[in-house]
Prior knowledge:
By secondary structure, the chain is of the alpha+beta class.
Amino acid sequence: MSSGCCRRLTGGTTGFPALSYPIREPPRASQCLPLPRIGRREIACARSNERRWLLEAVVAGGGVEDRKGKGKGICWYAVGDQRVGEELGEKSDENNNRTVEVVVAAGVTVVLGVGNRVLYKLALVPLKHYPFFLAQLATFGYVIVYFSILYFRYHAGLVNDEMLSLPKIPFLAVGLLEALAAASGMAAGAILSGAAIPILSQSFLVWQLLLSYIFLGRRYRFNQLLGCFLVAAGVVITVSSGSSAGSLMEAGIFWSLLMIGSFLFQAADTILKEMIFLDAGQQLKGGSVDLFVVNSFGSAFQALFICLLLPFLSKLWGIPFNQLPNYLMDGAACFLNIGSISSGCDGAPLLPLLFVIVNMGFNISLLHLLKISSAVVSCLASTFSVPISVFLFTLPLPYLGAASSLPPGFVAGAVVLLIGLLIYAWTPSQSPPRS
């Protein structure tokens, strides 16, 4: 005598009551029969053996969907001794592809971050008297480059009018935050020692965790918080082991707090960019804004605010504002290695150009990583480049003269940093739900 049973599986929340229907006549061949109802999708699955099931998959949102629709629910059910998944394989493959994409993007960001730090040191060899010129070149020159790339991407169909018509107030805020970060960072960096800045820069990660908690509603697991702490501690151990213990307090507490405030502006800038990407997904109806739209308009507003702060910034660098045009002209001549002052500009224009190219690639890769992951992940990738750069400076690099010695705590700091990254990336195993 045949026996029947009914089983209900919920794929989402709904306010409709759960109903089930018995199957009276089992078909001889295995098949699934759709039973239309409002707000639910029911599949009657039968086999030629003695057991029969009626499966009810509730679709979140109360809409009726079929396999040809855009919506995809997650449903699984048992047939005999086997567990059949509906679209779980596609979800798993999508998650795996996204994980691989994030890992590759993070690796590229780390490599470019290391190159950015090393080449900046090399670029200052010919431009040792013109660091302010190099900073302004990175600010104003990139606006031209980014908008040129945006122009070609627009005509190639990668950027549309909807992306360009997004509200500009968030980009204005991005430019303001970046200008304030540059101004406060330059002011504090002119007073603080070189070893103190990388240590204070670890506050950047703390600010990002706090701001993402407040404005993005992120909730972090204990292993993620512990991993971030170990990453910051590893960098501090690596950098501070070769410096005096009192290097942070030599310049005074005010300048240390100002540098920490500079990293607060930078963290707020990255969180705001992440919010722009998230909000654009809703305004573009599921689409994604091109990262060069964010880069171009953000850089343009940053250049605008930097222009307003030029008198203050030039004074920080010891350049009278009335002599700033002559200073910039001499810096351009040294950058191109032409004119009467080119005798002390050995390595130009190759080294400054390499830095400009790598720095631009680093900024683009960092923004791309932020777009596909989060601000915290992009910060961790950037932080990982610090000990690698410290190690590379111990090698006999050209134009730098004698190589620096490896800090005593380098190995210990690097091990702590790696452990922190592994703990952050570790996902605790979860027991499967009961059927």
